[in-house]
Amino acid sequence: MKKISICIPVLNEEENILNTYEKVKKIFEEKLKNYDHEFIFTDNNSNDKSEEILSDLCKKDKKVKYIRFRNNLDYDKSILEGYKHSSGDAAIVIDCDLQDPPELFESFIKKWEQGNDVVYGVVQSRKENSFVSFLRRTFYVIMNLNADIKYPLDAHDFRLVDRKVIDGFKDNSNLYPYVRGLTFALANKPFGIEYNRETRKKGKSKLGLYNTFTYAINALLEETFFFTKIFRRLSLLLVFFGITFSLINLFYGFQLLEFYKNFIVFLLIFICMFLAIICEYVTRIYFQLKKTERIIYEKKINF
């Protein structure tokens, strides 16, 4: 009997944990009887009752496994640790708020059995701010401009991943992984299934505008080829415009002085941002080369 690991990242989800567990459990009992399963909850150091609820759940059901981190390692690291601790022939990531429907598991597994090593959800519609949706799509359009691997515009982390792909994560000890990128980089035959994403029913979203921005920056930093190529091009482009405006100013006097001043201000802002990202990038390279060991687990149950 094949086994499916259900990886569920958690951060202050006391209102959703039991509901998610019961819904997923019911799906395996009624629709996926021919598959064994396990739950892997990865807890980013929640400060509500999540730890208590999950610890009790582990006592009642040995198929439930629980990892609690010593501090908040962020969403992607939580997903990566779930994959690395899974024992199934495939693993499905789903958020604890159930905005993504667990009813889609059956379709995911069917496509997986047909030979697709990554089966991911493609959001046909989502109930969110239109400006956020625009930013999300723009980010992936920019990523795809220079990336060797083309990312789906409306897919996120709701997906099934085959054991062969999961094994490719085993030696990854990166503290700031971009798991979506890693997954598609290792996939040989990905397949997307459309669905409608619901709104969160209980609890508060942990992703706000700031976290969305930092997530995007992390993705750019982890996509090394993209980072070096796109920022090199932007730098050269700005230098070109700077020289061009300087030459125009020499020939036409001070007619463009005000515009030129504005351009200089913009250039200085860009340089500051660029230097900040470079510092972050170099710091990550340093820790990666140094291979700094770090104890990230506070507790593990049922492993």
Describe the structure.
The protein has 303 residues and is α/β, with parallel strands linked by helices. It has two domains: 3-201 and 295-301, Spore Coat Polysaccharide Biosynthesis Protein SpsA, Chain A (Alpha-Beta Complex); 224-290. The chain is built from ten helices and eight strands. Strands 7-5-6-4-1-2-3-8 form an eight-stranded mixed sheet, with helices on both faces. The chain is elongated, with a radius of gyration of 22 Å.
CATH class of the largest domain: Alpha Beta
- Total helices: the number is 10
CATH architecture of the largest domain: Alpha-Beta Complex
Averaged pLDDT, please? 81
Number of strands: 8
Strand content: 15-25%
Oligomeric state, counting identical vs distinct chains: single chain
Secondary-structure content class: alpha/beta
Low-confidence residue ranges: none
Give, in order, the helices and strands: EHEHEHEHEHEHHEHHHE
Give short descriptive properties of this protein.
303 residues; 2 domains; 10 helices; eight-stranded mixed beta sheet; elongated; alpha/beta; Spore Coat Polysaccharide Biosynthesis Protein SpsA, Chain A
